[in-house]
From TrEMBL:
Involved in pre-mRNA splicing as a component of the spliceosome. This is Zinc finger matrin-type protein 2. Keywords: DNA-binding, Metal-binding, Nucleus, Zinc, Zinc-finger. Pfam families: zf-C2H2_jaz. It comes from the Eukaryota. One of its GO terms (cellular component) is U4/U6 x U5 tri-snRNP complex. Component of the spliceosome B complex. Residues 28-46, 146-174 have a biased composition (Basic and acidic residues). Residues 79-113 form the U1-type domain. Residues 27-46, 146-181 are annotated as: Disordered. InterPro entries: Matrin/U1-like-C_Znf_C2H2 (IPR003604), Snu23 (IPR040107), Znf_C2H2_jaz (IPR022755), Znf_C2H2_sf (IPR036236). GO terms for biological process: dorsal/ventral pattern formation; mRNA splicing, via spliceosome; pectoral fin development.
Amino acid sequence: MASSSGSSKNDFRRKWDKDEFENLAQKRLTEEREKEKRDGKLAPPVKRELLRHRDYKVDLESKLGKTIVITKTTPQAEMGGYYCNVCDCVVKDSINFLDHINGKKHQRNLGMSMRVERSSLDQVKKRFEVNKKKLEEKQKEYDFEERMKELREEEEKAKAYKKEKQKERKRRAEDDVDFEEDDEMAAVMGFSGFGSSKKSH
């Protein structure tokens, strides 16, 4: 299988005879086809769709913290996690579930190959036009006058908040002055202070 003859004596790498392996592969394929013909099960080649992008959002949050009973009596069904209806399997967490639904096995069960359709120049140009129109619509939606009105309202709210804070500070300062006057009056009358529970000797 491997020929040890090399151009230099110091080359220790294995040299593979490609023709020999190609012949072995062809031989194996013909044997498999003959076996299928003998068994009477000639399976037609499967034509799969090209891979396309998902037109729906994968919902991972709606069933968080909820329990759904799966009527399978397998050890996997008891462990909990995300259940795939297409492949009839349970995946432990959301990251592995996303890997699973984007993976080869799941896509094959959906009837898709992992090949992507090549886009033509016209399709790319149309896509650019669609994206450009979306961008222009967003810019039209942005109304300058409306934004200025929102900013004015925010400024008015901030001013009202500041005024309220200043009024509150004034009330506190007046209350502090009243307490100081009460302390002075108590000192004039010979009391050490009102509301004190300490006894003086």
